[in-house]
UniProtKB/TrEMBL annotation:
Residues 322-389 form the THUMP-like domain. It comes from the Bacteria. Gene3D superfamilies: Methyltransferase PG1098, N-terminal domain (1.10.10.1110), Vaccinia Virus protein VP39 (3.40.50.150). This is Class I SAM-dependent methyltransferase. Residues 279-321 form the PG-1098 ferredoxin-like domain. Keywords: Methyltransferase, Transferase. InterPro entries: PG_1098_Fer (IPR054168), SAM-dependent_MTases_sf (IPR029063), Thump-like (IPR041497). The keyword S-adenosyl-L-methionine does not apply.
Length: 397
């Protein structure tokens, strides 16, 4: 840490230049003694990136920011707050502490949190910021998480891990065994220190594969923010042998959409099919990731358009965890129907359709945006169709 960055005049410069061209700063002459312009740019970029993702940090004076890669990899406050609601007890050990966002929120629910981070500078940054944020029940240690756990004499109520999804060449990896640490290798050690383990993985990890590789999974939380899957949480409990519950969660401001199910129930549920009726439903991203394509329709009394389209319909409007549309018209997909559309802009979605959005835009000459929604899909007879709809809650033109 370069503590010169916390000088009042430097902090004032950062606050007033968040939207400046960082290249002009980087290539210009040094602005402050004892500070390289590269360090100044790092603070500018990371603070700006934190404005929406980490508003508590952004709104607190004298926060020291890690580089923008660390900020991009850290949990958002929305997802960290959700994780904190899953834990309780006296102690939690965060084995991959990073910038400290998760540890901050864990400290609201746990009496003593251990923040373990092998990167010494990042550990110091987290400790500095936690103190500025008024947190006194988090102890920071600059040490490898596995080494710390091996020397831990006592048990801990919870273990939390967010394995790094970057290899030694800083390239992204996606499988558990390629992440650092490889949690599949250390399960015995984890359960020798705690009865409860929470593991965060990236949104691309296959749920079925994760269940095969991890032990004693109690619940799987697929966590999306504003309809974009951000992370998957694996909640493990010692000796749990029953089928895990899968929770698809979509956080949107102060609202939370939640859909819970067991995979076996999904396998034994069979959908009903129908032509498009009055309303169209598109599940949120977390449900799409979960694979609950039959259950979601059955639970809300909806019929499916086609086996692989994952779009649903009903005659009467029902509340639904996702986007809801009122259907204006259904067309067969052909040149004549395209000519009859009569507008220049539309939001286009394809579901189980042989052409991409880009190909459709080229063919229809439709620009992106506006209040019209066009779904290109097929019906239960496998006929290609276009559905013109207006999103519920949006004003019609």
């Amino acid at each position: 840490m370069n503590l010169n960055l916390l000088n009042p005049e430097v902090q004032e410069f950062i606050d007033h230049n968040l939207n400046t061209d960082v290249h002009s700063v980087l290539l210009g002459k040094n602005l402050f003694p004892g500070i390289e312009n590269r360090e100044l740019v790092e603070q500018l970029e990371s603070k700006k990136k934190s404005q929406k993702k980490l508003p508590t940090w952004f709104g607190t004076e004298n926060i020291y920011y890690a580089n923008k890669l660390n900020i991009s990899q850290t949990s958002s406050e929305a997802t960290a707050r959700y994780k904190a609601d899953l834990v309780s007890g006296d102690t939690l050990t965060d084995l991959t502490g990073g910038f400290g966002v998760d540890s901050y929120y864990f400290s609201k629910k746990i009496k003593l949190v251990f923040h373990i981070e092998k990167n010494k500078e990042l550990s110091e940054i987290a400790e500095h910021n936690l103190r500025k944020l008024g947190i006194t029940n988090v102890s920071c240690f600059s040490k490898d998480g596995i080494e710390f756990l091996e020397t831990l004499q006592d048990t801990t109520d919870w273990l939390f891990l967010d394995p790094s999804r970057r290899d030694s060449n800083n390239k992204k990896v996606y499988f558990l065994q390629d992440c650092e640490p490889d949690v599949t290798r250390w399960m015995h050690l984890f359960f020798s220190r705690s009865n409860n383990i929470l593991i965060k993985t990236g949104p691309l990890l296959d749920i079925t594969l994760g269940l095969q590789q991890l032990q004693n999974v109690y619940r799987v939380h697929i966590l999306s923010v504003e309809n974009e899957v951000k992370e998957i949480l694996w909640e493990l409990k010692r000796n749990h042998k029953e089928e895990p519950m899968i929770k698809a969660i979509n956080l949107n401001g102060n609202t939370r959409e939640s859909f819970e199910f067991f995979s076996e129930k999904e396998k034994t549920t069979f959908p009903e099919y129908s032509e498009p009726l009055s309303f169209l439903y598109e599940p949120n991203a977390a449900i799409m990731k979960s694979g609950a394509f039959n259950l979601v329709g059955k639970r809300y009394g909806l019929k499916k358009l086609q086996e692989h389209s994952h779009l649903y319909t009903s005659g009467d409007l029902v509340p639904f965890p996702g986007r809801t549309f009122e259907i204006s018209k259904v067309f067969p997909y052909n040149k004549k129907s395209i000519k009859r559309l009569g507008f220049q802009k539309a939001n286009i979605t394809t579901r189980n359709f042989p052409e991409t959005v880009a190909q459709i835009r080229k063919k229809t000459k439709l620009k992106d945006g506006g209040e019209h929604f066009l779904f290109f899909t097929n019906n239960h007879n496998n006929d290609l169709i276009m559905i013109l709809a207006c999103q519920i809650g949006k004003t019609k033109r």
